[in-house]
């Protein structure tokens, strides 16, 4: 059985390139593939990432889940749950933990929402 191979046709535009030119082309194509992925990583977040940030800020996993759920419910997750807690703490002049616990108790979500107004991340 003979295989119909179009390799020669597909490589036509590459056959006159030097090794250096091929390598440059390779890395250029890799950048085209990776750039959209990096952009997604910089511009988007997930609840798991936000919980992880809150854990590193000193909250327990149960507290972190409650904060992320609250941020999701109040459409603040795009700003980052840690950022929401941090900015609330700065506004109130308290530490991060106190601000986070205030949010968990559901007494400061309106205040947190007002910090971000119509602002988009």
Please report the number of helical segments: 7
Strand content: under 5%
Radius of gyration: 24 Å
Question: What's the shape?
Answer: elongated
> Which residue ranges are poorly predicted, with pLDDT under 50 across at least 5 consecutive positions?
none
| Major sheet description | none
Which sequence of SSEs, written as H and E, runs from N to C?
HHHHHHH
Average of the residue pLDDT scores: 90
The class by helix and strand makeup works out as mainly alpha
Number of strands: 0
Q: Specify the helix fraction band.
A: 55-70%
Question: Cα distance, first to last residue?
Answer: 59 Å
Describe what you observe in this structure.
This protein is mainly α and 121 residues long. The protein is built from seven helices and no strands. The N and C termini lie far apart (59 Å). The model has no long low-confidence stretch (mean pLDDT 90).
Summarize the model shown.
With 121 residues, the protein is mainly α. It is built from seven helices and no strands.
Secondary structure blueprint with pairings:
Blueprint: H1 7-10, H2 19-43, H3 47-56, H4 61-73, H5 81-92, H6 96-104, H7 109-116
List keywords for this structure.
121 residues; mainly alpha; elongated
